[in-house]
Every structure is written in C-alpha cells, then in structure tokens.
Amino acid sequence: MQVTQSYAFGSPNVGPGGGGGYNFGSITKLIAAAADPNPAVYKATNNDYTIEADASNQNIQIVLPAASKAVGQIKTIKRIDASYASGNSVTILAVDGSTIEGLSSIALTAQSSVVKVQSDGTQWIVNSGQNSAPFPIPATPGAIAAITVGASPFTYTATQAGTVYTSAGTVSALQFKRGATTIDTGIVDGPVPVDIGDKVIVTYSVAPTMNFAPI
After folding, report:
1. What is the extent of the structural domain holding 77?
2. For residue range 130-151, what is the model confidence (pLDDT) as tens digits?
3. Domain of life here (predicted)?
4. pTM for the whole structure
C-alpha cells in the first residue's frame, strides 16, 4: 500500500500555528494495491490528523491508537477512491479493541463518505461525518411492486420515492405531474423517477405493464 504522510516531508504536525491563530493538520493518503494483503492495514500514528483512503483496488483497514493513550486526539478519515469500488470498504477499528461510539469497528462503504472521531480516553467518539453514530446499517430497498393499471388515462400516485417503470402495451402519452404542474415525459415507456405525492399519467389503447421500485 502506498502511504504518503505530509508530516514526513517537512509539513508541520498538528498544533498551534506559531501564534497566527490557526492550526496545521497533517494529511496522510493511502492507496491500496490489488496485490496488497486483504485488507491492506494502516496503523494510524499520533501525528495523523486527516487520513484519505483509496480502496479502489483492495479493502483498507485503518487501526487507530488505543483510546487510553490518545486522549483528545482527533482523526478525520475520508474515502476517496479514484475509481469507486462498491465491493470494497474502508474499515476503522482501534488497536486495543477500544470501541468507536460503542462499536468494535465502523466502515466507510460509500464514495466520499467521511467520519471524524476523537478519543475521550475510554473510547473513540464520533463527532461528525456522513457515517456518524450510530452508524445504522442502510435499509434494504423495498421490493419491486406491480402496479394494477386502470382505465385510460390511468394515474398512479407515488406513496414513496422511487421509480415508475412502464413497458409494453400501446401507449400514446406518458406524463409526470407534481402539484398543479403536468409535463410530457417525451417517452411512451421506460423509467420515471418520482417522489412522494408525484403522479404518473399514462394514456393508452392497449394497457402497458407498470411497476414501482422504491428507493
């Protein structure tokens, strides 16, 4: 794994900026290679402040110092895949098993996901980030549901956000309505993204097949 640490090249470590009223924060960039062990492991140091992790080619595991030995330390960790690999993750845990907001580990699974943690001497607490505590497991999207098509022109009203798919049949118009405004989609079949309360209006001579896929 390629590791680039700004503090290893003369950049100041974290701390007061010489009376200038600002702080320096080091940046460490990790780029995992396909040939690296799975996962590629990086042990964070006391000097690490911001850690950028590229898991395009391999899973990355970032090991934080023991919370008891890093009181007050702040680490911001961000996933920055050059080519996002949805099957890979950036996992964060502590070297001594101390928890992160009560969990044994957390993972950055989305591109550009970020978390900011700080040691309170007992555990690492989550201060902010897209994957902030309690790090819920994302809900599994609901199943695709068939829409029973009524008489033409048929209006479907979305009860949640998702996509309405129209196919087959003989359709002359496929319209989208939000509030008092109705527009022509310009297509007679295919996907129409909707939010709660949006309407899809289909005019046909032979009924099409319609399905709804929630987000």
Report:
1. 2-129
2. 554 344 445 566 789 999 999 9
3. Bacteria
4. 0.56
